Amino acid sequence: MSKISVIVPVYNTDTEYLQKCIDSILEQKGADTELILINDGSVGDAPGVCARAAKEDSRVIYISQENSGVSVARNKGLDAATGDYIMFVDSDDFISPGLFERLLPSMGKGLDILFFGYCTSYVGREMNRVISSPDLSLFTPDTLQLAILNANPRLGPLEVGAPWGKLIRRSVIEDNGLRYTPGLKKGQDTVFTLNLLEHCSLVSYESVAGYHYRVSKQSISHRFSADMVAIMEKTLGAYSSFIERYAKGPVYRRALLNKFYRVLTGEYMDLYFTHPDNPAPSSDMQREFLALCEAEPYRSAIAGVEISTLTGLDRLEHHLVLCKKTKALWAMHKMLRAAKSLIVKDYK
Question: pTM for the whole thing?
Answer without folding.
Answer: 0.94
